[in-house]
Amino acid sequence: MNKTGGILLLFSTLCFSQQNQDIEKPVRNLFLAMKNADPVLLKSVFTENAILQTVTKEGIVKSDNIQDFIASVSKFTKGDLDERIHIEAIHTDGNLASVFTPYSFYRKDNLSHCGANSFQLVKQNNEWKIQYIIDTRRKDNCREIK
Predict the structure, then answer these.
(1) pLDDT mean over 100-116
(2) Rounded CA gap, 133 and 54, in Å?
(3) Residue 125 three-state SS
(4) Which regions of the chain does DSSP assign to beta strands (E)?
(5) Greatest alpha-carbon span in the chain
(6) How are the residues of the chain apportioned to helix, strand and coil, as percentages rounded to the nearest 5?
(7) What pTM was computed for the model?
(8) What are φ and ψ of residue 119, in 5° steps?
C-alpha cells in the first residue's frame, strides 16, 4: 500500500470509529440514565415518537409507553437498575442506524433477567436518537456481561 492509500485508510477508520461512537452515545446514555434514575437524560435519548416493545418467550410482542417507562425508572434509587450491554453490531445507512446488544439486567445487584436489545436510531438535527427498541427477556441461560 502506498503512503496516500495508508493515510486514506487511517482517515476512514477514524471517521468510522467516530460515527460509531456518536451512534452508541444515546444507547449508552439510556443505560446510564437508568442506572442513575435520571429522567431528564433518559428522555433526551428518544425521538418524540419512540416505540418500546418486548418479545415474550411465547412470541407475543408487547408495547410499552415511553413516558410510562421514564416515569417508572425515575421511581428507583440511583444504582438500583443496571443493564449491562455488549454492542455486537452497528449498521448504518445515511440517517438510519441499527444497534444490536445482548444484555444482562440487574436489579439491586441481583441478576433479574437477560436477553438482547435491537435499537433503530435516526439522526435528527445532527444528533442520533433512539426511535425504536425491541428486546427479548429470559431468566435462563444468562451470561454475565461486565
Answers:
(1) 96
(2) 8
(3) coil
(4) 46-55, 61-64, 81-85, 89-93, 96-107, 110-124, 127-136
(5) 58
(6) 35, 40, 25
(7) 0.86
(8) -105, 140
